[in-house]
Specification:
Blueprint lengths: L4 H6 L2 H6 L16 E3 L30 H6 L6 E3 L1 E7 L9 E3 L2 E4 L14 E5 L7 E6 L2 H4 L7 E3 L4 E5 L6 E2 L2 E5 L7 E2 L15 E2 L1 E4 L5 E5 L6 E5 L7 E6 L5 E6 L5 E6 L3 E6 L1 H4 L9 E7 L3 E11 L2 E10 L4 E5 L7 E6 L9 H8 L8 E7 L7 E7 L2 E6 L7 E7 L14 H5 L9 H9 L5 H4 L22 E3 L2 E6 L3 E7 L17
Parallel strand pairs: 1-21
Antiparallel strand pairs: 2-29, 3-32, 4-5, 5-6, 6-7, 8-9, 9-11, 10-13, 11-12, 14-15, 15-16, 16-17, 18-19, 19-20, 20-21, 22-23, 23-24, 24-25, 26-27, 27-28, 28-29, 30-31, 31-32
Length: about 525
């Protein structure tokens, strides 16, 4: 079926995706019964810019942009910083897709098969007890760790558990390893049998994963198909599947209500599915997990994950879109049957009016342009700050004490590793740079064009011909920046693991700080 451009623009991003073979290889269809929210006037405004203090190396263009001139001249290899100082780093051979951390340690995710080229193949455990000089402690080499962990590597702080699934290519099958990280620098495998032994696979698919709040259930989701599995890890030595379902054709990351009875499941089409997980939480026999609501929006897709927080006792989510310039949405979930977009956090480069500038600078940078990916609130109750990893825009930190008027207070975009593609075996960015076109931004570009906000002349520039062989002239910061007092533990795909310190003039850690990723 052929569409005119004007009709195509009137469709929601999910509907556009439904008619398209997405970059990650699955043909998707929009589910029935979805509520589409436009939220005009809320999702088309950028957060207030940070005011940089002494010693800054500020961005030279739009908020979040790495201009084409900076990429071509080499300026982007110096990075940009505002109210953040880099203390130390352990680059390894790149930071895969997402990594995680616990106490003074970081666990660097793996990307298959590039990870296998490293003499230290596996999840590298980094000891950052001396923040200025992080060092390698050990390497986890179980099959799931070698097969690529994608977005499954997570820590439960209360139970001191690290879990990761094997995901060699978008969706993995059967592999899941569980570690005791009481000694964070030397994780101890707890399940040498099911999930780790290749002859004893678990009946799961995985692309994403996350813990229930009590840490007794580890949930996985697949992209193609969108099978969701609840794995009982009450006894970590004997993981077993409690429930499986297919709430959508392609599901992504998740978040949970504090009591674990609601799952806020991301939809790769763009949107949020709320599931009632009470029966799993209670460990009922043959549990049922009904869908309470399905909500989507038109300004972003490949929704990544949700962080459940409360303000003045009212439940909200910070929900992150991975593509299409969706940014981070504040969603009111007081009524789980009718979630409501209350506000959003975006950078100037994400706005519809700047999609032409985005295309001009992002060409040659591969599939992603300037997209949010994973965030962490500094506490779940009345959070004061939100730190986010933003593809090509680095680490962005926002004051969210008033979530309806967020403002950026700091950023750190690490030095671009231009020309080092062949060295960064564990960087998904280096591998994906075979393609130079930011394909994941095409729906946003189409919408901008039909709205009359796209200037083709502005979109054309010195990098427009770079449709293949990207040059790593920016980095992709996909992992959640984790709070450690006035520091952040961060991992980016090219620069690897870094410790950053926030200027005390812009951030004071609350006494009850508790880094909160959502699952």
């Amino acid at each position: 079926m052929l569409f005119s451009l004007s009709r195509l623009a009137r469709l929601s991003v999910p509907a556009i995706a439904a008619a398209t073979v997405l970059p990650f290889g699955s043909v998707l269809a929009q589910p029935s019964g979805v509520v589409v929210q436009e939220a005009a006037g809320v999702v088309d405004v950028a957060a207030e810019r940070a005011v940089c203090g002494p010693g800054a190396a500020p961005e030279t263009g739009l908020q979040g942009d790495v201009p084409a001139a900076d990429r071509s001249s080499g300026r982007s290899t110096q990075g940009y910083s505002c109210n953040i100082t880099r203390l130390g780093a352990y680059p390894g051979r790149g930071g895969a897709i997402t990594s995680t951390s616990f106490e003074h340690c970081a666990y660097m995710g793996t990307f298959f098969p590039g990870n296998l080229l490293d003499p230290l193949a596996g999840v590298q455990v980094v000891d950052a007890s001396t923040p200025t000089a992080p060092v390698l402690s050990t390497v986890l080499t179980e099959p799931a760790m070698l097969a690529g962990t994608w977005e499954t590597l997570k820590v439960h702080q209360g139970r001191k558990l690290l879990v990761g699934a094997g995901v060699p290519a978008l969706t993995g099958f059967g592999l899941l390893s569980i570690y005791d990280v009481s000694d964070c620098a030397r994780p101890r495998l707890l399940n040498p049998g099911p999930g780790t032994d290749l002859t004893m696979p678990l009946p799961i698919t995985a692309h994403e994963g996350g813990f229930s709040p009590d840490g007794n259930t580890y949930w996985t989701s697949g992209t193609a198909p969108g099978i969701v599995s609840a794995v009982d890890i009450t006894d970590p030595s004997a993981p077993r599947v409690l429930w499986q379902g297919l709430p959508g054709m392609s599901m992504h990351g998740m978040g949970f209500s504090p009591d674990g009875t609601r799952m806020y499941l991301s939809n790769n089409l763009g949107g949020l599915t709320v599931l009632d997980t009470s029966a799993v939480q209670r460990r009922e026999p043959n549990p049922q997990v009904p869908v309470l609501s399905q909500t989507t929006w038109t300004d972003g897709w490949a929704t990544q994950h949700s962080i459940a927080v409360t303000y003045d006792g009212r439940p909200y989510l910070f929900t992150v879109d991975e593509a299409g310039s969706g940014g981070v949405k504040l969603i009111d979930v007081a009524d789980p049957a009718a979630p409501r977009i209350a506000h959003a956090i975006k950078l100037e480069i994400n706005l519809p009016s700047n999609q032409d500038s985005m295309l001009s600078s992002a060409m040659g940078g591969s599939l992603f342009a300037y997209d949010s990916h994973y965030c962490a609130a500094d506490r779940p109750v009345d959070p004061t700050a939100l730190a986010c990893g933003w593809a090509s825009s680095g680490i962005r930190v926002f004051d969210v004490r008033d979530p309806f008027h967020p403002r950026e207070i700091a950023y750190y975009n690490p030095p671009a590793q231009t020309g080092r593609n062949a060295e960064l075996w564990n960087s998904v960015h280096a591998v994906a740079s075979i393609i130079g076109v930011p394909i994941l931004e095409l729906p946003a570009v189409l919408q901008s064009g039909v709205a009359g906000q796209f200037d083709p002349g502005q979109a054309l520039g010195e990098r427009s011909g770079m449709v293949v062989a990207g040059d790593l002239s920016s980095d992709w910061c996909f992992s959640a920046p984790e709070w450690r007092g006035d520091m952040l533990y961060v991992t980016c795909t090219d620069n690897g693991f870094m410790t950053l310190r926030l200027d005390p003039a812009v951030y004071t850690p609350p006494a009850d700080q508790l880094s909160t990723v959502g699952s």
